[in-house]
Amino acid sequence: MRSEPLIEARLRELHAPRIEPSPAHGEAADAREAEALAAWSQRYANARPDAGQRAASGRGASLLGVLGVFGRHRLAVALAAMLMAIVGACVLPTSYEIPLGISVEIRVAAGELDSAQEIANYVQARSNAAEVDVLMREVVGAGSGPQFVMMIRLWDHELALGEIELELREQFPELEGAEIIETPLEGEIETIWARRLANRAFSLSLREVDVEQARAQLLLELQAQGFEDDEVVVEVRDREDGQREVEVQIERRGFQADGHEHDPPVMDPASLD
Amino acid sequence: MLIVRDPLARRVRQAVAGDRRAFTRLYRELHPLVARFIARRVDSRADAEELVAEVFRRVVEHLGGFDPSRGSVRAWVLRIARNAVIDHYRTRKSPVALEAIADGLRETTGPLDHLIADERTRQIREILAECPEQTRQLLAMRYGDGLRHAEIAELLGLRESAVRKRISRAISELRTRSRALEDEQNPEVSHAL
């Protein structure tokens, strides 16, 4: 899967420092730290020479006191250890994949797919996808003749994987000899366990509150992620089958719904705000 | 509403109150950030060492004046580092544009051939070169300096949401254009989505 982290990795590579950053350890590093500490001492340590030590010894004494209490209560110590283990586990990195759409790739012998436009229209209408990308090209592979490849990417659609192939073959007899490959498009979320659990808790809480409260919760969450009020439309509905339906629309300024070739240059700062 | 407290601000407060350990921790937590920021803006190791030391001299000098209500400690220190780099080039009467140096743009347009590992990286670099200056600046700060969105926003005087959106859209555009270039140049490679 070609994914965004790859682009980010290349950006990091391109923006790497031109020289090695000053090391944090070693003789020179120690000397720099000592120099900074000396400068600090001149200004602040003399004002309250024992403040730091007092604070440190105070902390030490209170820590010993707490440990002493815990030492007398084994259960408390065990609980503390368990709590630390849980906290430790929560900051461990984790990742999970989220479904984004599907890709339908159709391969036929070159020049034989005159109905490409009709196929694209059919798939778009059938999938009810929020966004459809269509790529067409001729591929010349080693040891085989030229092939015409049509790739349809469906984002936020209503199709199950494997559902469209049979329909396409029925609707378009010219696809009889074509190779049709459906592939899920997935995104990987990299996070820590704490955030993942928090997201799950957030989803659960959305189901427990009433419709208006759920909507308000979602709006707050979107605001926290940097979206403005006038950029998002949130609707929460309770269906008759007992399921709660949440619809979030985010307006992306400068984005053109029709024709990918004519999208405005989004790198222009004037169109980014 | 979730209120995020800056843990470094507490260390600053303790260091100003005379807590040596707090200052040592503050130094050690900020050093990698400053060292990387400087290393992306100078060509000489000796200059980098001297500038890092200078930044911490200024940090100590102004530590008592740090105001947590005006921003985070990291952004405050980065502003000091940026000014130190500007002063460094000004002293040397360097012909390099001060703003370009301070905002880390030079490396996106400078000679980086030795860093280019493969064709795709070269493509990204070419696409980057065509991007507006502010986009390059945002990407350099995010992926070069490793700054958080909020820190970039603080340094550039923008809203965090605007920084997030611009970077996200820039990445999306880079990905699209990179794919298009790849498809043009290498038609036999099938899509591996």
TrEMBL record, chain B:
Q: Which GO terms describe its biological process?
A: DNA-templated transcription initiation
What keywords is this UniProt entry annotated with? Sigma factor, Transcription, Transcription regulation
What domain of life does the native source organism fall in? Answer: Bacteria
What does UniProt give as the signal peptide span?
Answer: none
Keyword field contains Coiled coil: no
Name the Gene Ontology molecular function terms of this record.
DNA binding; sigma factor activity
Give a yes or no for keyword Acetylation in this entry.
no
InterPro entries per record:
RNA_pol_sigma-70-like (IPR039425), RNA_pol_sigma-70_dom (IPR014284), RNA_pol_sigma70_r2 (IPR007627), RNA_pol_sigma70_r4_t2 (IPR013249), RNA_pol_sigma_r2 (IPR013325), RNA_pol_sigma_r3/r4-like (IPR013324), WH-like_DNA-bd_sf (IPR036388)
Q: Which residues form the RNA polymerase sigma factor 70 region 4 type domain?
A: 122-173
Domain RNA polymerase sigma-70 region: residue ranges: 26-93
PANTHER family, alphabetically? RNA POLYMERASE ECF-TYPE SIGMA FACTO (PTHR43133), RNA POLYMERASE SIGMA FACTOR SIGZ (PTHR43133:SF62)
Q: Which family does it belong to?
A: Belongs to the sigma-70 factor family. ECF subfamily.
Record protein name field: RNA polymerase sigma-70 factor, ECF subfamily protein
